[in-house]
Amino acid sequence: MKRMQHPLTWWIWSIALAFEITRLNNAWISIVVVGVAFLVVRTFREDAPWGKSFESAFKLGLWIIAIRCIFGVLIGTPIPGTTLIKLPILPLPQWMAGIRIGGAVTQERLFSTFHEGVILAAILIIFGAASSLTSPHRLLRVLPFAIYQFGLALVIATSLVPQMVRSISRIKDAQYLRGQKLSLKRTLIPLLEESLARCLDLAAAMDSRGYGSLKTRSRYRPISWNVSDTFIVLTALLSFLNPYALLINCAAPLILIRRKTMVSTS
Amino acid sequence: MITFSDVSLIYPNSTKTVLENLNLTIDEGELVLVIGPTGSGKSSLLRLINGLVPHHTGGILAGNVSVDGISTQLVKPGGLAHLIGIVGQNPANGFVTDTVEEELAFGMETLNIAPDVMRKRVEEILDLLSLAPLRNRSLATLSGGEQQRVAIGSALVMHPKVLVLDEPTSALDPIAAEEVLSILHRLVNDLGLTIVIAEHKLERVSQFADRIVHIDGVGNARVGTPSQIMSDSDIAPPIVHLARALGLADAGLSVRDMRRLSEDIRNATYGPRIVESANGAECVVESKNLSCTYGEKIVLRDINLQFHEGEIIAVMGRNGAGKSTLLRSIVGLNSAEKGSMRVQGHDLAKLNGSARRESVGFIPQEPSDLLYGQSVLMECTQADKDNEVDKGTTFALLNELVPGISAHTHPRDLSEGQRLALALCVVLSAKPRILILDEPTRGLDYQAKNHLVATLLRYASVLKKTVILATHDVELVAELASRVIFLADGDVVADGPTLDVLLSSPAFAPQVAKVMSPQPWLTVQDVVSALEAR
User: Fold this and answer.
1) What is the C-alpha to C-alpha distance for residues B8 and B221, in angstroms, rounded to an integer?
2) Which one of 2.60.120.260, 3.40.50.300, 3.90.180.10, 3.20.20.70 gives the CATH number of domain B1-83+161-236?
3) Which pTM does this prediction carry?
């Protein structure tokens, strides 16, 4: 069986990365970090429904950048500098003074919105990587009893998302076959109804199987914490002290990857 | 083991009592079957046993339900987890973990059972339910029958005294259903487990039941042995209808008893059967060397088929044999890897809007996928507009099909059968030349099934349209289809008139055929007409 990291390891790792990205506030560094996350996900993820959350997060990230750029350029305070193009200014009523739609698009303005968008997207993608790398169900098993309600919600949410993706495509197909144009309402209503029913089913099933009825629970296959977990978590904790420990934080899993590829080739 | 004393149940915002003054004692080692029309409260009755009703769903409960001396009023469902295992209608919805082994262990973990005990019990269950080869498989990759077995296993692993199952075979093909039921039968006999099952497909389960609880949905319940209940129940498997038609009142429920009693009928000689053929009818769907793949896997391999006007074709086969893929490639949702699929000369993937509606109608496995209106009337008006028919056509059709549906009901509040009827009307009012249904009888009671059969037969014969359906329900096929296509692992292994295909395979033979073999009869009606013609 494939040896896996402890489910908390990758979450701590990505929280540290996200923290550093916000602190350093540099788009280039963020892009490098996303690259590292990509390598890690490619090596360590399992072939499971949640394994694809990295891709989804990546796509969502690109959307965020695009939307931010569009809005940032159209609306908002102008930053003086090299003008790239001049858009017509939309006349607004008096009471909306201070807001401008259109006008000159400066290079500086474009860069700053792009920069902010990249950092936001990077944080999202890093968390996408963490959820790609850990089975939500295994994560649940290591959570303490005190947050059992949270665990219940987590399991429901995580088993629901892949299910919802499948339901959406099924409903879209059905509506398409009815010869209708797709509309949000026509997809959303059956989807919500089904998802709600599904949540209730799952909650009932967990309840009937005694989830949360005892304060302690045993472990069938204890999830082990090993040296590589300690290694990654320690480097992650370092970076809370000094922002430049980001380097070490990024390097740590790369060392694991290298060791892994060496093991597999030998 | 389980005692219902003076139990009445009513849900909030509902004027209908689900149960009224139910008194029922279920002994240890009994297998009790709960029957009733859809929406009559079978699931509620099952969920009362471990307190999910009313703890989880709300509702007002009067009287007392107790299991092994513990009243569900005082204990929440979690507190009964060691005593009662419950398997829901769709087992996949209740899975909490990722793999088979983890799922089996989950319940024991929550009950804080020691790891070495857990290991032993998991192994036991893996052997008991023949799940050992699947132990490390991801739950999402299991077939319907395997999922059902895992769900039963994860309930049994807690060593419960009571096992409660809600429609355990409704999504399964006949062979998988047989597997699951024989396991249950063994558990009752070997371990003295008490089992309560709700099921619509009585032909599958009635011979295993010790007692039957028949609820009618307005509060009344009758409890009795299978022969008592079946003597005058409107809900009955085909074998009972056969016994009634032949005047064999106390024939019992097993094929063996019926065969013994009907020996002289079987052995008499009958005139040759009249075979109708669809020859000369126009070919509407044609596939040539059609192959489809899903990822790496080949789902359909070199399929050559022709469907004609006025035919009702049933596509059968085990779960995962390629039935849905075949239907999907007819309607143009699956692109062919090789070969072609033509509907009246068109590739349906390229048809849109009204042209598509007029050439093909599709009822998905979940009919509610098609519905999004806030009321039945809204749904019907929208369909009239979409299908460019006179106002009120769809609603009139619905009234004809299942009279008495209020126009202002929300589609979600309809029963399973009514919802299917609504979806059917929405599609049928466009009068598509080909109607396709994917597993239409999942969760339908006999009455709704009869309505469906009547509607589809009329649609095919009077309006000369083609109906194609994928189903596991052999009884439905026997009543309805004129031709059966049998798929196995992506190949067409049998294609011919219903009679020939169904009779050639014992597992897929309907009850009447099992009783009357070797006579070529599939339904009660066949037997009656043959006897009259003699």
Assistant:
1) 11
2) 3.40.50.300
3) 0.81
